[in-house]
Amino acid sequence: MTTRDAVRARGRRPGGEDTRSAIIDAARKSFAAKGYDKTSLRGIAREAGVDPALVHHYFDGKAALFAETLDVPVNPAELIERITTGDVDRLGWRIVETFLGVWEPAERRDALVALVRSSMTSEEAARMLREFLGREVFGRIAASTGAPDPQLRGALAASQMIGLVVARYVIKVPALAEATREQLVERIGPVLQHHLVDRSPGPE
Amino acid sequence: MTTRDAVRARGRRPGGEDTRSAIIDAARKSFAAKGYDKTSLRGIAREAGVDPALVHHYFDGKAALFAETLDVPVNPAELIERITTGDVDRLGWRIVETFLGVWEPAERRDALVALVRSSMTSEEAARMLREFLGREVFGRIAASTGAPDPQLRGALAASQMIGLVVARYVIKVPALAEATREQLVERIGPVLQHHLVDRSPGPE
Fold first, then answer.
1. What is the mean pLDDT of residues A31-49?
2. CA nearest to A204 within chain B
3. What number is the ipTM of this complex?
4. Any idea where the domains of chain A sit in the sequence?
5. Which of A17, B69, B126, B186 could form a disulfide with B28 if both were Cys (CB 3.0 to 4.6 A apart)?
6. Nearest chain A residue (CA) to B186
C-alpha cells in the first residue's frame, strides 16, 4: 500500500503531512522510473493526485524535492548558492567544507551511502545520480566560474567527491575514515580548485 | 565441483594448467574469506593441496596471485616498480598513465568494475580491496616519496582513482566517460602529485 493509497483508504482528503508524503512518494517513483532530467513537477503532481500548485507550495523546486526523496532535508539550490557566492579563489575549499558539513551527520551519511551504493548496481539509480549531479550540483558550480570546459571540470570535481565518499564511508580506507574534517578540507580543497578553476592543467 | 575436485575426479596428478587453476581457485577463496593481509601463500598451497614451492613457481608473490584471481594478468609489483622509478616530479602523471594503460582494455575494465562494485555491497570484497590497495599499491607508492603522512596521502590518491573508476565506468558521467586518456592524465596527474608529493597542502 502506497502512502497515497493509505491516505485514501483512511478516507481523508489529501492535506498537510499526508499530501506532502504522497508527493514525495510519487516523486521517488518518478525519479527512479524516468531519471532526474525527465521528471517534471507537473508529472509528480498528476501521479500524486494533487494540484501542481501544492507541489510548489510544499517544495522549493525539483532539486529540493529530490533531496526529500533521499530523506535529506537540505535544499541543494541553497547550498549551491552558498558555495558559488564568494571568492572564486576559495571555491574548492568551500565545496568540501559545505559537503562535509551537510553529510557528516550519521543519518544523512547513511542516505548518501545508500544512494552511491545503489548507483553501483542499478542503472536507474546511476542515471538519477548522474543527472542530478550534472544538472544541479557540479554543472552549476562549474558554470559559475567562467573557466573553459565546465562539463569536464564539473565531472572531474564530482569524481574526487564520489571517491571520497566511497573510500571514507564505504570501503573505509583507514587513513580516510579517521581523517578529521579539517584535514579533508585542507587536502581536497585544492584538488577541487584545480579541477574547477585553475587555468593551467597542472603545477608545471 | 571446484577446479581441484575436477583435477582429482579426472584422476590426474595436479600439474601444469590444472595446478595453476587449483592454486588460483584456492587463492580466490582465501582472499574472500580472510582478506588480503591475512592470506598467506603457504595457506593457499595447503588449501590447493600442492607444495608451497609450486605456488612460488607459478606466481610472483601474493600481489601477482591476487591479480590472477581478478582475471587480470598483470603483476602489481612490476607496475609499482615502474611507477616509482623515475622523476618524483612526474609521479602523479605516471600513475594515471600506467593505471589507464592497464585498465582501459574492455576485458580488464570489466574485472575492475566488478571488483569496485562488489566492494560496495560486500564487506569481504571491501576489505580485500582496502588491504590490497593499502599494502601493495598506494601504500608502496606513498612510501616511495619520503613525504610526510604517507598513509593519508596514499588513501587520498586512492580516493581520486576510485572516484575516476566509479564516475567514468560505473555511473558513466558523460564528460568523463568520453574523455580521452590524454585528457585524464593531464587533469588528474597533478591531483595525484598534490596528494602524494606536494609539501604544502595547497596552492596558497
1. 94
2. B190
3. 0.85
4. 3-67, 72-196
5. B69
6. A201
Nearest to B145 by CA among B73, B77, B195: B195
pLDDT at position A6, please? 42
Residue B2 has pLDDT above 80, yes or no: no
Contact A120 B166 (CB under 8 A): yes
Alpha-helix residue ranges (DSSP H) falling in chain B? 3-9, 16-34, 41-48, 52-58, 62-69, 76-84, 91-103, 106-121, 123-132, 138-143, 150-165, 174-178, 181-196
Q: What is the pLDDT of residue B200?
A: 63
- Kindly list the residues from chain B whose CB atom is less than 8 angstroms away from the CB atom of residue A155: 167, 173-176, 179
The closest alpha carbon to A4, from A167, A13, B162, belongs to A13
Split at pLDDT 50, 70, 90, the class of B115 is: confident
What is A72-196's CATH number?
A: 1.10.357.10
One-letter identity of residue B124: E
Q: CA of B124, closest CA in chain A: separation in Å?
A: 10
The CATH T-level fold of domain A3-67 is: Arc Repressor Mutant, subunit A (1.10.10)
- The owner of cell 501544492 is A54
Of A41-45, A121-125, B2-6, B25-29, the least confident: B2-6
> What are A72's three cell numbers?
535529506
Please state which CATH number belongs to domain B73-196: 1.10.357.10
The residue of B171, B180, B183, B192 whose CB has the most chain A CBs within 10 angstroms, and thus the best one to mutate to test that interface, is: B171
Least confident among A4-18, A118-132, B31-45, B95-109: A4-18
What does the pLDDT look like over B65-81, one tens digit per residue?
999 998 877 888 999 99
Length reported for chain A: 204
Of B151, B189, B201, the CB nearest to A190: B201
- Calculate the CA A39 to chain-centre distance: 15
List the grid coordinates of A201.
592543467
Contact A203 B193 (CB under 8 A): yes
* Residue count of chain B: 204
Cβ of B159 and A154 within 8 Å? no
**A-B Cβ pairs (cutoff 8 Å, strict):** 157
